[in-house]
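In the laboratory, one determines a bound structure by crystallizing the protein with its ligand and collecting diffraction data. In a computational setting the workflow is compressed into a single prediction: the sequence and the ligand go in, and a structural description comes out. We illustrate the idea with arginine.
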Amino acid sequence: MPLFLMTDPVCFDVSYQINPWMRPKAWRPEHRAAAQVASANLKAALKAAGAHVETIEAVHGLPDLVFPANAAVVLDGRVLLARFRHAERQGEEAVFRSVFARLKTRGLVEELVDLPEGVFQEGAGDCIWDADRHLFWAGFGPRSSKGSIAIIGRTFGEEVVALELASDRFYHLDTCFCPLAGGQVLYYPEAFTPAAQAMIRERVPTAQRIEATAQEAEAFCVNAVNLGAQLIMARAPASLRAKLNAHSYSLTEVDLDPFILSGGAAYCMTLRLDRSSQPQPAILAAAPLAAE
Ligand code: ARG
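The predicted complex, in structure-token form:
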């Protein structure tokens, strides 16, 4: 059963600005209630798709703790703990460290690894496992440092393809790049430097490249959770739905607008804990909600 980490959104808000989507002045108290509903709906969608969700407690003063994708890179039970670029999120490091220590005592992860001093790496938000190609795609530039690439490679003993991000609006790899179970890659080319775009084209044949438009990427739909033939994402433009259906993916859309106000959506609100480098059996289609 796929296992995801999520965070209780009770302390979520937009009170500082560390990316262009965040506008503290536009934040309203009612957004927090909407965030509770949105987060609960995302959790329900994951469960309906056959996943288990571990939920961690919120911490006052750490609103972005709701984005656990940034907490660590996890593969085969090994946890490479993140270091955040911005002071506003650095307080999350100790919280997530104790979360992972507890998960370790429960046998849900095996080993915690620290980054060397001076290296920034914002977890699975900037380092995404591609099961089909058996490699990590890792973003760097706005948040994670280029030096993180070699460390990820050494820590996991796996190939890492480094992609430089070119836009401050798509500041984490997961906002613009999503490898899918069938080998396709859903991505927004303009978010990458020309060299990174060339690297993607070199690795992913044309028939497997699903290019998102600016509108689709700005709807935070590339920031999707993929389980087999299913994709769970923020509300999608019809154009994207059609593209993904043509590749036999079915979409579950969740209204994640309160989190988009912080520059995040489905993928970064979750962290997959059970990812394995070994080939996995295909995940069966979701049971209908009524059978839950
Ligand atoms: N406000 C958060 C930040 O700027 C959003 C993080 C979203 N996470 C992600 N992996 N895209 O850090």
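The longest helix spans residues 29-48. Keep in mind that any predicted model is a hypothesis to be tested, not a measurement.
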